[in-house]
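Example record

The entry below shows one chain as it appears in the dataset: sequence first, then structure tokens.
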Amino acid sequence: MAQNRETILRRPLYVFDLPEEILATIQIKAEHSTVSNQEESEEIVFRSSAAERVKGEDTQPSTAAATSCSLCGLKFANLQEQRGHVRSDLHGYNLKQKARGLTPINETDFEKLIG
């Protein structure tokens, strides 16, 4: 029996081809509600008010909405500048550096490399 159990556990198990031994031990789990109706309604109200705050932030300009590139360590005044940076050779080079496990470089070092 122990050897049979080890052979079952060595191979990958899929729901469609579970062995008879495992199917015989499966039981239906009892459903228990741990969250009361009041807690559910409070969570729904919280989510909807948070969504309204996010929608309202789009119309109000603020300095917190400034964009940046955490990979290259640069900050931008607006979204168009950030998009331009993402398409730049510097950003592409830094992405490749990160994929190789190396540290990204700054703009001046990149200019020296392509010199």
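Notes for this example: The first strand starts at residue 67 and ends at 69. Confidence is low (pLDDT under 50) at residues 53-65.
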